[in-house]
Amino acid sequence: MTASLGLGLIGVGRWGRNYVRTIGAVDGAHLAAVASRNPETPALLPSGARMHADWRDLVADPSVDAVVIASPPSAHAAPLIAAVEAGKPVLAEKPLTDRPEELAAMRGAVARHGGVVMVEHTHLFHDAFRALVDHARAAGGARAVRAAAGNFGPIRPNVSVLWDWGPHDVAMALDLFGAETAIVRAARRLAHEDKPEGRAERIALDLTIAGAPVALSFSTKDARHRWFAVDLADSTLIYSDQAGAPLKRCPVTGAPPDAPGEILVTQAGPPLTVAVETFIAAIRHGDACGPSFSLACAVVETLAKADAELHDVE
Fold it and tell me: pLDDT of 283-296, one tens digit each?
């Protein structure tokens, strides 16, 4: 019988709590320890899980076989590098970092030590999005991408909508084309509004990936929405995690997101569960870091270029 892997979780905030629940429900692993200073954290943990105030103690904990990083992106680099240097696999939340200047050190550590290093770009683990990629490639590839996502918040004082919502769609577009580079053609702030909790924004990006146009929009000024449309030679694939049927095919190119179409996927498993299970399988099979880490680096580089070119058009 294969021994259960002990996972150590750094960060038990809103998303980190999802990891606590998810790890407790998957086969082949258990939550061995967490790094958190929140006095409410012990009540969330399963019996036997250790609690460390410092992430360094978690990385050094012999009961921890692999590390999950769910702290804010600005705090990812140091624990990721330490875990890789300690020979422990890493699953980090997206974006890999919101400090592009840290990429070189992270890449250097991974290049020197190897091992399993994954980044949890949520939609890449969604069954419907994986089906979209398969359908698009079987149909000869995507001609263009149009996508929009957002909600009335949360508005974060130190994180722009570009870095909060942008990692999802940039990752999906890169993954769809099997690419690790994107050309930023335009980055525009279409609207903004200063609120007590921070700035609400609506941002549009125009990219070129593998020669194809990609138009993305992110907003914290609109009601909740997410759709990702892929224009094929004779039809359109539309993915939406907000819809009852998350993937459909419309019989014309350029169809709007609310157009009727053939339903291709009607339900899907929780993407975070798929991500954790994929991470466990990669450790079991000895898969070295690959597309997940390099794609995550490309996402950060693309967002950094867009941030540098972002300008108001109001």
Answer: 998 876 666 899 99
